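Justification of resources, computational component.

The compute hours requested in this renewal are based largely on the per-chain cost of generating structure records like the one below. Each record pairs the submitted sequence with a full C-alpha coordinate output. That output is archived, and it is also reused by downstream analysis tasks.
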Amino acid sequence: MKKFLLISLFSLFAAIGAQAQKYALIDTEYILKNIPAYERANEQLNQQSKRWQSEIDELSEEAKNLYKNYQSESMFLSDEQRHQREEDILKLEQQAAELRNLYFGPTGELYKKRESLMAPIQEEIYNAVKEICEVKGYSMVIDRASAASIIYASPKIDISNDVLTKLGY
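The structure output for this chain reads:
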Protein backbone atom coordinates (compact mmCIF):
# COMPACT_ATOMS: atom_id res chain seq x y z
CA MET A 1 0.00 0.00 0.00
CA LYS A 2 2.85 2.36 0.84
CA LYS A 3 4.48 1.61 -2.51
CA PHE A 4 1.25 2.41 -4.35
CA LEU A 5 0.84 5.68 -2.45
CA LEU A 6 4.47 6.62 -3.03
CA ILE A 7 4.25 5.85 -6.76
CA SER A 8 0.98 7.79 -7.04
CA LEU A 9 2.47 10.86 -5.34
CA PHE A 10 5.59 10.68 -7.50
CA SER A 11 3.45 10.43 -10.66
CA LEU A 12 1.32 13.38 -9.53
CA PHE A 13 4.36 15.59 -8.91
CA ALA A 14 5.91 14.53 -12.23
CA ALA A 15 2.70 15.39 -14.08
CA ILE A 16 2.47 18.79 -12.37
CA GLY A 17 6.12 19.50 -13.21
CA ALA A 18 5.65 18.49 -16.82
CA GLN A 19 2.67 20.78 -17.24
CA ALA A 20 4.63 23.72 -15.88
CA GLN A 21 7.19 23.51 -18.67
CA LYS A 22 6.79 25.77 -21.68
CA TYR A 23 7.76 24.67 -25.16
CA ALA A 24 8.37 26.58 -28.35
CA LEU A 25 9.11 25.81 -31.97
CA ILE A 26 11.39 27.42 -34.49
CA ASP A 27 11.80 26.76 -38.18
CA THR A 28 15.48 27.22 -38.96
CA GLU A 29 14.89 26.94 -42.70
CA TYR A 30 12.46 29.85 -42.54
CA ILE A 31 14.84 31.85 -40.34
CA LEU A 32 17.84 31.21 -42.58
CA LYS A 33 15.90 32.14 -45.74
CA ASN A 34 15.24 35.53 -44.18
CA ILE A 35 18.87 36.24 -43.28
CA PRO A 36 20.75 37.91 -46.17
CA ALA A 37 24.15 36.81 -44.81
CA TYR A 38 23.05 33.18 -45.16
CA GLU A 39 22.07 33.71 -48.79
CA ARG A 40 25.43 35.39 -49.51
CA ALA A 41 27.29 32.55 -47.79
CA ASN A 42 25.36 29.99 -49.82
CA GLU A 43 26.17 31.85 -53.03
CA GLN A 44 29.87 31.90 -52.13
CA LEU A 45 29.78 28.17 -51.42
CA ASN A 46 28.02 27.46 -54.72
CA GLN A 47 30.52 29.52 -56.72
CA GLN A 48 33.51 27.88 -55.03
CA SER A 49 31.95 24.45 -55.49
CA LYS A 50 31.47 25.10 -59.22
CA ARG A 51 35.10 26.22 -59.60
CA TRP A 52 36.38 23.11 -57.84
CA GLN A 53 34.05 20.85 -59.81
CA SER A 54 35.22 22.34 -63.12
CA GLU A 55 38.83 21.73 -62.06
CA ILE A 56 38.00 18.08 -61.35
CA ASP A 57 36.02 17.81 -64.60
CA GLU A 58 39.00 19.12 -66.59
CA LEU A 59 41.26 16.42 -65.15
CA SER A 60 38.65 13.74 -65.79
CA GLU A 61 38.15 14.95 -69.34
CA GLU A 62 41.89 14.96 -69.94
CA ALA A 63 42.07 11.37 -68.66
CA LYS A 64 39.20 10.36 -70.97
CA ASN A 65 40.91 11.94 -73.95
CA LEU A 66 44.17 10.20 -73.13
CA TYR A 67 42.30 6.92 -72.85
CA LYS A 68 40.59 7.42 -76.23
CA ASN A 69 43.93 8.21 -77.84
CA TYR A 70 45.46 5.22 -76.12
CA GLN A 71 42.73 2.92 -77.46
CA SER A 72 43.15 4.12 -81.02
CA GLU A 73 46.95 4.00 -80.94
CA SER A 74 47.52 0.96 -78.70
CA MET A 75 48.14 -1.41 -81.63
CA PHE A 76 51.01 0.74 -82.84
CA LEU A 77 52.69 1.20 -79.45
CA SER A 78 55.40 -0.89 -77.88
CA ASP A 79 54.75 -2.59 -74.54
CA GLU A 80 56.78 0.07 -72.77
CA GLN A 81 54.84 2.89 -74.43
CA ARG A 82 51.51 1.22 -73.63
CA HIS A 83 52.54 0.78 -70.03
CA GLN A 84 53.61 4.44 -69.82
CA ARG A 85 50.33 5.68 -71.29
CA GLU A 86 48.32 3.48 -68.92
CA GLU A 87 50.26 4.92 -65.99
CA ASP A 88 49.63 8.48 -67.23
CA ILE A 89 45.90 7.79 -67.50
CA LEU A 90 45.79 6.25 -64.03
CA LYS A 91 47.72 9.19 -62.55
CA LEU A 92 45.22 11.67 -63.99
CA GLU A 93 42.27 9.62 -62.72
CA GLN A 94 43.89 9.42 -59.27
CA GLN A 95 44.54 13.15 -59.25
CA ALA A 96 40.88 13.79 -60.05
CA ALA A 97 39.78 11.41 -57.27
CA GLU A 98 42.19 13.02 -54.79
CA LEU A 99 40.96 16.49 -55.69
CA ARG A 100 37.34 15.36 -55.35
CA ASN A 101 38.13 14.03 -51.88
CA LEU A 102 40.16 17.12 -50.95
CA TYR A 103 37.41 19.50 -51.99
CA PHE A 104 34.20 17.55 -51.39
CA GLY A 105 35.18 14.83 -48.91
CA PRO A 106 33.74 14.57 -45.37
CA THR A 107 36.46 16.86 -44.02
CA GLY A 108 37.19 18.59 -47.30
CA GLU A 109 37.59 22.22 -48.18
CA LEU A 110 33.89 22.70 -48.92
CA TYR A 111 32.99 21.40 -45.46
CA LYS A 112 35.56 23.69 -43.83
CA LYS A 113 34.41 26.70 -45.82
CA ARG A 114 30.75 25.96 -44.99
CA GLU A 115 31.66 25.72 -41.30
CA SER A 116 33.56 29.00 -41.36
CA LEU A 117 30.73 30.82 -43.15
CA MET A 118 27.75 29.24 -41.37
CA ALA A 119 29.06 28.91 -37.80
CA PRO A 120 28.71 32.64 -37.00
CA ILE A 121 25.16 32.71 -38.39
CA GLN A 122 24.18 29.60 -36.44
CA GLU A 123 25.76 31.00 -33.29
CA GLU A 124 23.82 34.23 -33.72
CA ILE A 125 20.56 32.29 -34.11
CA TYR A 126 21.36 30.14 -31.08
CA ASN A 127 22.06 33.20 -28.93
CA ALA A 128 18.81 34.87 -30.04
CA VAL A 129 16.82 31.72 -29.25
CA LYS A 130 18.54 31.44 -25.87
CA GLU A 131 17.72 35.05 -24.97
CA ILE A 132 14.08 34.64 -26.01
CA CYS A 133 13.83 31.45 -23.94
CA GLU A 134 15.26 33.16 -20.88
CA VAL A 135 12.89 36.13 -21.23
CA LYS A 136 9.75 34.11 -22.00
CA GLY A 137 10.57 31.13 -19.78
CA TYR A 138 10.66 28.35 -22.38
CA SER A 139 12.10 25.07 -21.18
CA MET A 140 12.65 23.61 -24.61
CA VAL A 141 12.74 24.77 -28.22
CA ILE A 142 12.26 22.25 -31.00
CA ASP A 143 13.40 22.88 -34.56
CA ARG A 144 10.49 22.18 -36.88
CA ALA A 145 12.82 21.93 -39.89
CA SER A 146 14.80 19.01 -38.48
CA ALA A 147 12.20 17.29 -36.30
CA ALA A 148 10.52 15.00 -38.80
CA SER A 149 8.39 13.40 -36.10
CA ILE A 150 6.34 16.54 -35.44
CA ILE A 151 2.96 15.89 -36.99
CA TYR A 152 1.21 19.03 -35.81
CA ALA A 153 2.32 22.05 -33.85
CA SER A 154 0.29 25.09 -32.97
CA PRO A 155 1.50 28.25 -34.70
CA LYS A 156 1.09 30.00 -31.35
CA ILE A 157 4.26 28.36 -30.02
CA ASP A 158 6.36 29.09 -33.13
CA ILE A 159 8.90 31.77 -32.20
CA SER A 160 10.68 31.94 -35.59
CA ASN A 161 9.53 35.51 -36.21
CA ASP A 162 10.63 36.49 -32.69
CA VAL A 163 14.09 35.14 -33.49
CA LEU A 164 14.23 37.11 -36.74
CA THR A 165 13.11 40.25 -34.90
CA LYS A 166 15.77 39.66 -32.26
CA LEU A 167 18.37 39.31 -35.01
CA GLY A 168 17.19 42.54 -36.61
CA TYR A 169 15.51 41.13 -39.74
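The chain is about 75% helix and 5% strand. The mean pLDDT is 85.
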